[in-house]
Amino acid sequence: MPQGICVFDEKLCLRVWNQGFIDALGLPPEIVCEGVHFAELMRIPASRGDCGPGDTEAIVEGLTAEAGKFEAQRFERTHPSGRAYLIQREPLLIDQQPGGFIATYTDISEQRASAEREQLAQKVYTHTPAGIIFTDEEHRILSINPATTQMTGYEAFELVGLTVFGLIDLHGEQARQDFEADLAQRASWQGELDITRKNGKGFPAGTRVNRVDDPQSGLPAHYVWILADITEHKQSEERMRHIAQHDALTGLPNRMALLLRLAQLLPEARRHGWRVAMMFLDLDRFKIINDTLGHQIGDELLREVACRLSRVVRETDFVARLGGDEFVIILPGISSAADAAVVAGKAIATLASPIEANGHELHTSPSIGISVFPDDGPDGDTILKNADTAMYHAKAAGRNNFQFFATEMNLATSERLSIEHKLRHAMSRNELALCFQPQFKAGDITPTGVEALLRWHHPTEGMISPARFIPIAEETGIIVEIGEWVLATACREMKRWIDAGMKPIRIAVNVSARQLRRRDFCETVANALTLSGLPAELLELEITESAVMENPQEAILILQRLGGMGVTLAIDDFGTGYSSLAYLKLFPIDHLKIDRSFVADIETDLNDRAIAFGTIALAHSLGLKVIAEGVETEDQLELLRTNGCDEVQGFLLSKPLSSAAAFSFLHARCPAE
Ligand code: C2E
Ligand code: MG
Ligand code: MG
Question: Could you give the angle at the alpha carbon of 535 between the alpha carbons of 494 and 585, nearest 5°?
């Protein structure tokens, strides 16, 4: 027998027992023997099962009296070991007289624990905020907990007996089959499902289904569905997604959203053979507005631009802000590139009217680059990059316009990159040199000066023209270092020639806008003069119109300081930029150099002639002298001379010469007095 069993006689002495009895009462085995009295055994606290404090004798007396009644009894007792026993006593009748009792001790610890667990489970079932649904093996609802009622609005009686799929939507036959397959294989399923409330409104529920198998047959017996309302979770997820994919300032989609959109759109376009246009739009002059009027006004401008751009496109188009003043518009499914041109035109038009911001009337315009998928690239990255490249060409083409991408643009870009790379080595490898082109008095062709012109002798590519590399040097900033070298070298050469017996004449050095913007430019010039020992009056700096006009106020200050040092100044390429006469008056300039494009056609083109002669008159009225560059023919020289041009420079009189050649040329014509 698994139970403990014992028999006491009518005098309450022990007659029969087994090991289970000793174990159940936790008795020391040496005490247990034939005839031992019930009270003796009860004196051992372990066997009493109640070791609370109190009068031991009284307790034992009570227990003994109870046993001595010889009645059927059934009670439970927990022993100090923690194990619980069901004790059943039956009187023994001998000749109809009570002749003792027989008792069994059944260990009920396990049952008790599982009952407790069940109670706890019941509590959880009732109070958890998760919806719990029990179903039978065919998903017919057996019970639901209160949270399910709260979530769905259905009471238990409305659902019990129905299949759970009336409440929970699995979206189609395929999904249902996958669901069943999962459950069969893994005994559980997890996912997000839509549940329809009693009031008809749906909500998303995080759902977990567990299969409960019958312990005997091993076949599915029940399913437990656990549901959590994840509406809020989904909303905050949606909010996070919105924040991550939108630009906080304008509310437009951002770069990340753009890339996601492309990832979705391009495969679709590829499948259907659609074309997708990508417009890269950059605002002209935004930086100036932002820097001079402040970020707040810059921000307001960007918001208004975002608004206007969104209004010119269709609902299916996509406007994003990449950051700064860069916007992108995607036009899906255009039939030809001309469609994109129309939208680009609209974008330009909508930004043409001034924007009001904080009492300021702001003028901005876009430079737009357009590339088309798949013509201009097989993927989003390439299309975006090419639209960007095209945008740069729009900027170079004078801003406020749009340009379509063309493959040559990238060729130009890669050529630029390679030149930039080589240029960085040119200085250290001594590949740069100066040549010198004399300038003459127009009247008697006596030398008045010489212009230093930069040359790049590349070891494998030969001569690289300054027209090709100077713009790149300017963009990358290398021009600053190069320019310093040019200044120092030019000053040193002229000083050397003078020391070698040549009459001192002016040396002109070209200066780029980038150099002029440097705060230490005046010091650089002063240094070159000090180191070479060349008198300041012999140095002329040639500055292009556009360099000066980039920031006239600042230019005035720098030019005045340079003038103060005794250095003379010339405006180079005059006529090609947009100088304001008002400013020109303020600059301490000595010479205007008429650009050679006007000189070239002076004999045939009446407009060019008018500009050249007008410039001469204008310069004279401002007290400036005029140098005409690019004089190639006698006729040009004659026309210029008779119209009062002061000095001339050009192939007719001398090509740019090497240092040695320039020295002997000039020395022969202007020996020291
Ligand atoms: P620029 O300052 O206007 O220089 C005059 C250019 O016209 C020189 O070209 C010169 O060789 C060329 N030229 C002179 N006479 C004639 C002529 O009769 N006919 C024709 N067709 N051209 C003539 P180059 O040397 O190729 O220089 C081009 C430009 O590169 C220069 O224009 C100047 O803006 C820039 N540059 C040259 N050297 C430097 C330099 O050291 N620093 C900077 N920042 N720019 C430089
Ligand atoms: Mg020049
Ligand atoms: Mg020039």
Answer: 105
